[in-house]
Amino acid sequence: MRAEDLTAVVITSVADAIGLEKIRIxxxxxxxxxxxxESIDLPDIWFRIHRDSGVEIxxxxxxxxxxxxxxxxEFGGEAVSEMGLAHLERVLPQFNSDSLTRPLRxxxxxELVTVGNLLDLVHRLAAQERGQAESVExxxxx
Length: 142
Known about the structure:
Layout: H1 3-18, H2 41-53, H3 59-67, H4 72-75, H5 82-91, H6 115-141
């Protein structure tokens, strides 16, 4: 699937799952805060993306994006640790911990995810799946 087709699938999946017009979906919009998604809507969005593109997204994929390989207790219990904040700044380009007026609670991290972050994740997962498929095909020829 071409990159622009995959982007269209993501935009349509978000719009349909949340019940919004596609024109309201922008890369900088947060899924939860700006677009009004609830955490229960996220698996529906992932399902729709998988159904229409073949790219599978799991909660583990999203957790890996947001936490990386930082163990839960080091990422932050009640509030996200300095290490966790630094990681979030690396993986969520729009996030700036200096702009926080109070500690970021671990339960608020999912609220930072934008449509653009989801697009990046889906494109990365699609590339990984293509790479695995290509290596399987090459291995089959040997």
